[in-house]
Amino acid sequence: MMGCHQSPTGRHCVFAVLRGAVAAVLGHKLVYKTLREAVVTMYRTEGPLVFYKGLNPTLIAIFPYAGFQFSFYSALKHVHEWVIPTEGANSENLKNLLCGSGAGVISKTLTYPLDLFKKRLQVGGFERARATFGQVRSYKGLLDCARQVLREEGPRGFFKGLSPSLLKAALATGFVFFWYELFCNLFHHMKKADS
C-alpha cells in the first residue's frame, strides 16, 4: 500500500507547499534565493511535516468532491435529456461538456471551504515572505483555521477566492467528462465493429 508521501494527493500537497515557497522566492522581497534554499530552510525549521500542511482538509474534501462530480454529472445529464432531447453525436459531446462543467461548478462550490482551509494552512510558515502582502495569519490546524475564518471574516470568508476556482473546476471537470465519454463511445464502437 502506498504511503501518504507517495500517493497522488500527498504529492499534490507537497507540490502545493513548494509552489508557495516559489511564490516567496519570486515575491517582492526575496526571502529565499533559490527553491533549494526554501526547501532546505523549511525542512530544517519545521521538519518534514511542513511539506504536508493542508493534507487533512485535502483528504477530507477529495471523496465528497469526486462523489459530487459524478452525482451531479449524472443528474445534469438527465435534466438535459428532459429539457433538450439529444440528437446526434455532436450534441451528445456538447451535452457531456456542459453537464461536466456544471457538475464541476456545483461540486467545487460545495467543497470550497475545505479547499480554502487547505490553501491557508499550506501558506502558513511563509510569514516573512507574506509580510509585504498585508495581514499575516497563523493557524494551529484545520479547526483553528475554520474558527478564525468564521470569527474574523464571517461565513462569506469561507468562499473567498471562489470565482477563479469555479472557472478552473468548470473547464477541468467539463473536459474530463467530455473526453471520458468520447473515448468510451470510441472504444464501444471499435468493439462493436470487431464483433
The count of DSSP E runs of length 2 or more, i.e. the number of strands, is: 0
Summarize the main sheet. none
Q: Which class do the helix and strand fractions yield?
A: mainly alpha
Poorly predicted runs are 1-7
C-alpha end-to-end distance:
39 Å
**What is the 3D form?**
elongated
How would you summarize this macromolecular structure in one to three sentences?
This protein is mostly helical. Helix content is 74%, strand content 0%. Helix 3 runs antiparallel to helix 4.
List keywords for this structure.
195 residues; mainly alpha; 74% helix; elongated
Question: Would you give an account of this structure?
Answer:
This protein is mainly alpha-helical and 195 residues long. It has seven helices and no strands. It has helices at residues 8-26, 35-46, 55-83, 89-123, 127-130, 142-153, 162-194. Helix 4 (89-123) packs across helix 7. The longest helix has 35 residues, at 89-123. It starts with 7 loop residues before the first helix and ends with a helix. Mean pLDDT is 83; it is low at 1-7.
